[in-house]
């Protein structure tokens, strides 16, 4: 089946289209979501097209979310972007929709939706949205290009990651040719609030690096609260350990209010997605997330990370 054509046919048929993304969004989640909304709004001005989810102050410079009444969902086509599994979808009203379509670039460990278009080799879901627009001759406005560019920049780590393909650069050039201020977007994505900068200093001071190159840091709930991050969160902290030349893999353990731990796993070489799946998570081979129920599970994950890193020598 030509899944892209099937998706486009559904879009043409439906009058109300509501676009979702994952919780705790990053620039690709918001960029692909809002970029697609703007593309479809321009192509089909007679339709009702919304982008929904929790408004994140730290991403307000990128886009604002729409307010949608519950009743709108009952007859809607639901598009869920950049979301690997059902529990991570932001705004659970998506389940009320008439039809659900999943569009994503993460490993498809949790297939869901009536239609699913997943491209694991794509740098980002934003890149996929540009490809979709190009295929069906949909105009990518300067406004849409700006948020899609931000999504690609965010998910490629400023084009540092291995999923940056030649095609990624072609798509990026297309977006830049619309006249967007790429430098301004780059600067916004590179900046961090002062509390996050101070927490970054804490991370470097408390980072443990094994002889194999596996690194980790455990951030207690009280420690995180003491930095008064507000809505800034810790996402911009994640790549920092990888800037150290001796670090090959790393894990950041963040204690939650129930004393479980959110785990962010990253790697410069050995795949860590298998480790993530073993601990209630998943993701890309070099960028994954997981959960640990307590410190004992945290210690087990640290041991496993060191083992798989040592085997990669």
From TrEMBL:
Organism from which the protein derives: Furfurilactobacillus rossiae DSM 15814
GO molecular function, one term: nucleic acid binding
Secretion signal, residue range per the UniProt entry: none
Highest taxon above the source species: Bacteria
Pfam families membership: DHH, DHHA1
DDH domain sequence ranges: 17-152
Domain DHHA1, chain residue ranges per copy: 237-308
UniProt-recorded name of the protein: Phosphoesterase, DHH family protein
